[in-house]
Every structure is written in structure tokens, then in C-alpha cells.
Design brief:
Blueprint (H helix, E strand, L loop, with lengths): L1 H34 L7 H17 L4 H4 L7 H16 L7 H28 L5 H10 L1 H9 L4 H16 L3 H12 L9 H9 L4 H19 L9 H11 L6 E2 L4 H4 L10 H23 L7 H15 L3 E2 L4 H13 L2 H27 L9 H27 L5
Parallel strand pairs: 1-2
């Protein structure tokens, strides 16, 4: 009887797997169909990607930054846009056409799919019974889809690099983890936020060889990505690019539904010492807390929750936040969700649903009010308050997690 029962279980498992991959393929096709059919409502950022792709294809790497009127992105995504531009020329796709828009969206779309596959694998490795549900859910999540499918933003590209890098960290594969982290930094400046997580892991590293090789791979990666854009081996332009990007938007909040929006400070200037001090205090406190959760209680199952808390805290409490900066927090929370045992997943689920809704609502409002400040009203204040409350809940949950969960390498 037990043999027959086992056969039935295998048959049901096989059926579930077939249905899962069928649903997975259908959802991917729907996403790409929408991406290649929908025009962009919020034109500013997409016009930048379009202009950068066109310009770098025309003038090449070395002349790109000196001759472009505006570009606040580091070089690696420009390399991606170079190949996108070359592909559009090869396929004779007219610039500005709907297929061209879909092509520009493709790197982020592909990254979304790889993130979903990594979530499935990670969930299976953690023996999470919700692997199939979580994977299909992340593909259906409008908080994620609105960013790449509807808006054409590239956040999924660098977030994928961070996700893969953190998974490698948990497997003690620090050198490839460093490579992906540096590549993420060379794609989007915001990747620097997660440096405390890597620092904490390396502070426990006792092998000098790992330190030396990690520093070497970081420098080699920077060199290989930057050298095509560099004249006369003068790499100071790269430092200036990051400095420029970090000081570009001096506002307390830029349509981000956070603590400052709740106070009615949307698009209010953040110039002055007080906001510099606030930034240092917030970033410093969250960084130290994140490092302590890793150093004092090194449980690899919690690392994605630490990454989520770090990014979500930055989004809620730091000045100069855009609406999209909540996006990485949402992705990391999915990975934290499947890493937790069922008892903890039940406690995290309301948080995941809440942040999914507020992420979608925030980006939706930004698209509706196309490049301008989102007007203050009861609903936007309410969504900002919900994010603040969600962050408080996240901190409380983290403290309880720290107290109750055993250390586990």
C-alpha cells in the first residue's frame, strides 16, 4: 500500500510541475506581449534610455560620456544599451516605435524572469512548500510588473545581480558574490546601499586569500567595465559620475510615499546641514543594525530579510528617495518569505501583501502624474503612513526574530 501511495504522490508532483511550468510560460508570454504592445506614459526616463542607446551605438564607448548632454548612470548599463541599439539596427526596428520600446524594456523583462526562477530554486533549496505559489505570485505582482512591463525601468537588472550575489554569499562563495555586487554598482548607484551586508560577511572571513582575491576581482571588474569609456587611463571620470549622481536630486522626497511625503514635503528642497545629518544618521544606524544581525546571529535564512529591512528603511527614512526605490525591498521580501519556516511566513505574509500594494500604488501615481509631483491628498498621505507603519512592524519583527531564532551558518 505504501508503494502505491508513493506512486500517487510522484504522479501528483509531476502533474503539479507540468502545470507550474505551463503557467510560468503563459505568464512570461503575457508580460512580453504587454511590453511590446504598450506605449510609455512616463516618458522622461525612457527617453533617456532611448537617447543613450542611440548615442552610444553611434559614437561608441569612449566618446559617449564626453558628448552626451545628460547621463547619471554608471557604465555597465550603457554597455547593455549599446547591444540593444545594435540589435534594433540589425532587425531594422524604427526608433520610437512600439517594438523598439519593447526592445528597450527587454533587459529588465529578462531579469524579472531570472529573478522568478532564482526564487523558485531558492525556495526549493529551503524546502519551502510555497515555492510554486511564490514564483507565480512574483510574476503576477503588479508592484513588480509596473516597473519593467509598463514603465520600462531597469531596476530589475541590478536587483537581479544583488539577489544572485547574496545567494552566493550564503553559500560561502564570496569571490563570485563580490563580482556580481561590483557589477551591480557599475549598473546603478543605489547598489552601494547593500555594502554593509558584504562588509559583515567579510569581517568573519579568516582566509587572507579570499580577501586578496575578492579585492582583485573587484578592481579587475571595475577596470574591464570602465576601460572602454576611459581616455589616457584617466579613471577620475568614474568617481565624478558617482559623485554627480549622488548629489543630483536635492529634494526631501521625490514622489516616494515615505515619512517625508507624509509630512507634506514632496519636492521640497533638502539643501542644508540638517538633512545631511539625517542622511548620515539613518544610513549609519540601518547599516550598523544590519551588520549586527549578521555578525551576532549569522543565520543565512535571514539575510534577505536583512537586505529588505536595510532598503525599506532607507526608502522610508532617508531624504532624496524616488518612488521606485521601494522596488528592491519588495523583491528581497519575496526571498525572505520563502526562506522562513511556515510559522514565520504567516507573520511576514501581511507585510509582503502590504508592500506589494504600496509599491504598485506609488509607481501608478508617478505614471499618472507623468514627470510631475504627485499631489497631496488623503489617499497618498494614507499610503505614506502605511509604509511608515509597515517599517515599524518590520523592525519589531526583526528584533523578535533576532531574539528567538538560533544562529545557523
Amino acid at each position: 500500500m505504501s508503494f502505491i501511495k508513493t506512486l500517487k504522490q510522484l504522479k501528483n508532483t509531476k502533474k503539479q510541475t507540468i502545470l507550474f511550468w505551463l503557467a510560468f510560460i503563459i505568464l512570461i508570454n503575457i508580460r512580453f506581449l504587454l511590453a511590446f504592445k504598450l506605449d510609455i506614459k512616463h516618458k522622461y526616463d525612457f527617453n533617456c534610455f532611448w537617447a543613450w542607446s542611440s548615442h552610444i551605438t553611434r559614437v561608441g564607448f569612449r566618446e559617449f560620456y564626453p558628448t552626451i548632454s545628460f547621463c547619471d548612470y554608471p557604465p555597465f548599463y550603457m554597455i547593455i544599451l549599446f547591444f540593444v541599439g545594435k540589435l534594433s539596427n540589425l532587425l531594422h526596428i524604427t526608433q520610437g516605435s512600439i517594438p523598439y520600446i519593447g526592445l528597450i524594456k527587454s533587459p529588465a523583462m529578462i531579469s524579472d524572469i531570472i529573478i522568478a526562477i532564482l526564487l523558485y530554486i531558492y525556495a526549493k533549496q529551503n524546502k519551502a512548500g510555497s515555492a510554486i505559489l511564490a514564483t507565480l505570485w512574483i510574476l503576477l505582482d503588479f508592484g513588480i510588473a509596473i516597473n519593467s512591463v509598463f514603465w520600462g525601468q531597469i531596476d530589475s537588472v541590478w536587483v537581479l545581480m544583488i539577489v544572485a550575489s547574496i545567494i552566493l554569499l550564503t553559500k560561502d562563495k564570496k569571490i563570485p558574490a563580490v563580482f556580481l555586487f561590483v557589477l551591480a554598482i557599475l549598473t546603478k548607484t543605489q547598489s552601494f546601499v547593500f555594502a554593509p551586508i558584504y562588509l559583515a560577511y567579510f569581517l568573519t572571513e579568516k582566509k587572507p586569500k579570499t580577501w586578496v582575491l575578492s579585492v582583485a576581482i573587484a578592481l579587475i571588474t571595475i577596470f574591464l567595465v570602465a576601460i572602454p569609456f576611459t581616455k589616457n587611463f584617466d579613471f577620475t571620470w568614474l568617481y565624478e559620475k558617482y559623485r554627480y549622481a549622488m548629489n543630483l536630486y536635492k529634494y526631501r522626497t521625490m514622489n516616494a510615499f515615505n515619512f517625508y511625503y507624509m509630512l507634506g514635503w514632496n519636492y521640497k528642497s533638502s539643501e542644508g546641514a540638517i538633512f545631511s545629518i539625517i542622511s548620515i544618521l539613518v544610513a549609519g544606524t540601518l547599516s550598523i543594525y544590519s551588520m549586527l544581525t549578521i555578525l551576532l546571529k549569522k543565520n543565512n535564512n535571514n539575510i534577505f530579510y536583512t537586505a529588505f529591512l536595510l532598503m525599506f528603511g532607507i526608502f522610508v527614512l532617508m531624504p532624496q528617495m524616488h518612488e521606485r526605490y521601494i522596488f528592491p525591498a519588495l523583491v528581497f521580501l519575496y526571498f525572505a518569505f520563502v526562506a522562513f519556516p511556515i510559522t514565520l511566513r504567516k507573520k511576514v505574509l501581511p507585510l509582503l501583501i502590504t508592500i506589494s500594494i504600496t509599491t504598485y500604488a506609488n509607481c501608478h501615481y508617478a505614471l499618472v502624474f507623468n514627470e510631475g509631483p504627485i499631489p497631496n491628498n488623503f489617499l497618498t498621505y494614507g499610503l505614506s503612513l502605511i509604509n511608515v507603519i509597515a517599517f515599524i512592524y518590520s523592525i519589531v519583527f526583526s528584533i523578535k526574530l533576532w531574539k528567538t531564532q538560533p544562529s545557523k551558518n
